[in-house]
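Re: export button greyed out
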Amino acid sequence: MRRIVKNRAIYLMILPGFLYFLIFKYIPMSGLIIAFQDYQAYLGVTGSPWVGLKHFERLFTEPMFFTILGNTLLLFFLNLAFYFPVPIILALMLNEVRREAFKRFIQTLVYIPHFMSWVIIVSISFVMLSMDRGIINELLVMAGFEKINFLMSSEWFRPMYVLQIIWREAGWGTIIYLAAMAAIDPGLYEASRIDGASRFRQMWHITLPSIRSVIVVLLILKIGDVLELGFEHIYLLLNSMNRDVAEIFDTYVYTAGLKQGQFSFSTAVGFFKSLIGLILVMLANWLAKKAGEEGIY
Amino acid sequence: MKKKKASTILAIVTALSVLAGCGGGSAPAATGSSTNGGQAQGEKPSEPVAISIMANLHTPEVPSDMIEKLLEEKTGTKLDIQWVPDGTYDEKVNASFATGTLPQVTYLKNAASLVNMRDAIRNGQFWEIGPLLDQYPNLSKLKPDVLKNTAVDGKIYALYREVPLSRQGIIYRKDWADKLGLSAPTNIDEFYNMLKQFKEKDPDGNGQDDTIPLTDRNDLIYGAFKTISSWLGTPNNWGEKDGKLAPEFMFPEYMETMKFFKKLHQEGLINQDFPVTSKTDQQNLFITGKSGVYIGAMGDVSSLHPKVVEVNPDAELDVQNKIEGGPNGFGIWSVPGYGSVILFPKTAIKSEEELTGVLAFMDQLMSPELGNLIYWGVEGQHHQLEEGKVVPSEDTKLTDREVKPYQAMQVGGPLTIEGFYEPKHMLPVKAKAEEMIVENNDYLIEDPSASLDSKTFNEKGVQLQEMIKDGTYRFMLGDLDEAGFQAVVDNWLKSGGQQIIDEFNVSYESSK
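Workaround output, generated via the alternate export path:
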């Protein structure tokens, strides 16, 4: 207690963060209660009748359930497999650029898409991929191929999804890696140069191992985001023709909950989704520790 | 300090006088006296009554507040209008409702949104206004038949915004048709032939095979689908089959419509991406002359015309309604007499006095003066008067920004507001469209389920409808065959559809 008083300035600094989590993350959790009720907006949490696990039962018996679960996990793994390495590779490449001005220029260029909303990214791809005079399809026709219905086919949804994420986020994702690389002791490079290591060898034996722990932490954090596949992004891409591969928990919560006012049911869905996320994070953390890394807790 | 107190009291007094004045009768006079009253006592203008409103925005931009300012001035209120884009309107209403933050005056999007609210209405979340309407000179003119269509358990909770019963028809490029020697289509074969020729005969004369005859969007109701389905004789949402009500998609005509669209899609007579095309993109195809046929509200011709002519000065538009396709002759689907409805949530309006105040404001909105203002804008600026008829400004960009959004706030309409200006159409094709909208009244296919009720439908009707919507699109794009669509319908029946059918039929029997 005395230590708290003594270091009150530091504790005061924690306060905003603490309040943020309390108000925006912990207090709303009590809202999960309505997953076990037949929540009626006008009766409130206290007045709505309790129904036990009814909504969870409905979720598990829903014909779409396994499709949605599968889609959520699959999109997540695709995201992890194809998007996650891209910023690392990009950062390694940028790190090798010796001309500062040129490096900055490239960096700015790859950051820009991050500041465009999903609506813009998706709209641009719609214009490019449209069957009616979309430039990509026109090019395909000129090259003697058949037009491809990118926007409304189940097969093209996943590649489109991953590519759009890379397009928008890859540049932004390099920031942390570049920072980690900047912190590497230059002496290591000097020593390796004296030993005759090539640029590629330096990258492989010094840069990569030095940022290994950053990569692991980011990987675990990323896994925590299995919950956040980008609702807006997918919702914009979702249509009647690709629903079987594109519907995920987030979009399902939105259509079942907000559009039709089934708040209890959608809370139950969201709850379930969070549980999956929690399990995956714990699993990843455990694996990281097994592999001798620090993990996040 | 003292002065502040005095002005607060004055504000309350003025507010009350506005309410009293409006409730009593002549609305415009009352507003005049309230502002005068404030100034007579040598004070600054008093604090006006605050009224919060949520309305549907059909234009891409939030409107300028010019009309809003005029409304505030004329009614002695302080308006807080929340504009919500049409695309997410229902979600916004649901979210606000769940969090208890609906405004005092809540416009619902359409008849279907009212159905979604029925349970909440039944649970007493909104004020019943039926018995109060008589006290208001303008609101009392709303048609009892239409009010009855909005009623829940026979009680009236909503004001309505009047729209023509059926505005559906075709808008097409007459110059293209003339060039190819085609006359306006009168049956489904001629319509198909027109599309076919528009595709193959290079109607825009640029020597390239680059026209998409029909432009459609991702909307099975207000897009082309439902209109063509009613040409082919499909019932409007629900129809009678062997004395029992059944949903439209269980009728063979619905299948016919889907097959027709499938054919159009395969032969390239419709934009290939129509299930994901937005209304803006759809209209752009037509405006830029890539496409020659547009199906939807015929009145849209007045906003499309100037834009089409801007791109191509030689373009000529025409409208057409009656297309014969089914065994029963002409038919066109209709709405139940109202476009949207207006509800008054109890969370926002705490007492009956407050309610009378809000209703008094709505009453003023329905007065000829304000009714015309929100619909036609300011004389000399947005329109001219000629022989007592309105000639809307040709500057549609201006009216789109300043007036059109406010039309969503209309209460009642030409049939219920005495002295509501009639338009004088400088554009002959617009006049023709208006005539055809009236003509449609003779061939209406009405929705027998409009006033019926089903508990299951209220609960999961929308979600179930989504299944049918997906199935319909997938059939039209060739992803499903007839058996596949039947499987979708079977799944619909199994997931609660059968219950809906049963409940609607019980309700139907008791209403006979």
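The two ends of chain A are 25 Å apart (CA to CA). The button fix ships in the next patch.
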